[in-house]
Amino acid sequence: MKVNQAEFIISAVSPEQYPNTGFPEIALAGRSNVGKSSFINKMVNRKKLARTSSKPGKTQTLNYYLIENQFYFVDVPGYGYAKVSKTERAKWGEMLETYFTQRETLTLALSVVDFRHPPTQDDIQMYEFFKYYQIPVLVVATKADKIPKSKWNKHESITKKTLDFDKEDQFVIFSAETGEGIDEAWKVIESFL
Ligand code: GDP
């Protein structure tokens, strides 16, 4: 998809604020700093549409970006944020559960993981959650520019094995630095719109 139109719609705190246009939603989940904002910016070819640094105070919001007046990228607050209190973490969990289990317009979850390292316990839990609720997943293994191509196969095997990757799901090696994986990611996303 060649994106001409991309706009930030809302940082939604509660479900009443979620848009009611009925457009499909592609949600991004992943650890803080894994590269979710960078993924969105690269995919829509805009440098600063999504903010590329996680703000602790923003842990409870879902950020909606409307793309081509056709669908939303929904940036879900990152997990694994060390400085968050127990209460905040519980609230965050509740919000995610509500969104992922009840949002009817959600069509695909992007599980963004760091391609350099095996998925973390949080990554595994998130993926298992998607599997449990039968939500289709595209695993985006990002920061691929940080490892030599000769090691990509090995890293892909480790990532898939650690996640207990379901063959029905999709997997894309990505880099917001080089643009690796953009076309492939669009192909998968478009097949869900
Ligand atoms: P978010 O918290 O998941 O939204 O992560 P960000 O998009 O803000 O990225 C966190 C940091 O990782 C930033 O410094 C980015 O520049 C960097 N980053 C993100 N994606 C890539 C990538 O593909 N390659 C490299 N080398 N750095 C990346």
UniProtKB/TrEMBL annotation:
GO terms for cellular component: cytosol. HAMAP family: GTPase_EngB. Residues 22-193 form the EngB-type G domain. This is Probable GTP-binding protein EngB. It comes from Pisciglobus halotolerans. One of its GO terms (molecular function) is GTP binding. Pfam families: MMR_HSR1. One of its GO terms (biological process) is division septum assembly. The gene is engB. The keyword Nucleotide-binding applies.
